[in-house]
C-alpha cells in the first residue's frame, strides 16, 4: 500500500531569504481539526505510530529539549512553559524519513516581513527551504528552494493561496514521503516539494527563523 492510500487521501491542491506553549511532545490522542481522536495528525485522518527505525518510538516526543539560539548568539534550552526562542533549532536524531510529520504552531508578528523553515544537513546544505514572504514588491509569495554545496537551486513559487496573516496564529505541517515533502497550513493541503537531497538520513536539523513567535514544535511518525 502506498502512502497516499495509507493516509486515506490528501486534500485537493489548490528562497533564498529567509508564544507560549508546552515543550514538544504530542498531546494525548492528537487530532487534526475536524477529525475523530482515532485519526490524528494529518489532513484526511491518520494516526501516528509505527516508528520506521529500530528503537524509534511510535510517537517520538524528544523529551530532552534541544539547544536554541539566544539573542547573544549562544544556545540555551527553553523553559518548559515559555515561548520557544526564535531563531529555533532542533536536531532530528534519525534524520528525515518516510512518514515523518513535523508540526509547527505559532503566531506571525504584526510587522512580519518573512518567516523561514529550513531542513538542513550536517554539512549545512538546505534540503528544503520554505520561505513565506509578506511583501515582495507588493506581493505575498511562498518561495521554496534548496541550497547544495553553497549553490541555490531553482526557486519554486507557484501556490494556490497565501495562508499566513500578520498578527494571526498558524499551524504548519510538513510530511516527508519517499519522493517529496507535503506541506499543509491551517488544516488544508498547500503544496509539495520534490526531494533534491535524496540521502534523507543526512537531513538532521530543523531551523525556524525570522518574524514569528513560536509556541510548539512536534515530531511524530505516521503509521
Notes on the protein architecture:
The protein has one helix at residues 3-6; strands at 68-69, 75-76, 88-91, 100-108, 115-121, 126-136, 139-148, 151-152, 169-176, 180-185, 188-194, 203-210, 212-221. It has one helix and 13 strands. The longest helix has 4 residues, at 3-6. Residues 1-40 and 45-82 have low confidence and may be disordered. The protein is 2% helix and 39% strand. The protein is mostly beta strands.
Chart the SSEs and their pairings:
Layout: H1 3-6, E1 68-69, E2 75-76, E3 88-91, E4 100-108, E5 115-121, E6 126-136, E7 139-148, E8 151-152, E9 169-176, E10 180-185, E11 188-194, E12 203-210, E13 212-221
Antiparallel strand pairs: 1-2, 3-12, 4-9, 4-13, 5-6, 5-12, 6-7, 7-8, 9-10, 10-11
Strand order of the largest sheet: 3-12-5-6-7-8
What is the H-and-E element order?
Answer: HEEEEEEEEEEEEE
Mean pLDDT: 75
Q: Tell me the radius of gyration.
A: 16 Å
C-alpha termini separation: 12 Å
Overall shape: globular
Which structural class do you get from the secondary structure elements?
Answer: mainly beta
For the report, how would you describe the main beta sheet? 6 strands, antiparallel
Strand percentage lies at 35-45%
What oligomerization state is this entry in?
Answer: single chain
In DSSP terms (H or I, runs of 4 or more residues), the helix count works out at: 1
Number of strands: 13
Helix content: under 10%
Low-confidence stretches: 1-40, 45-82
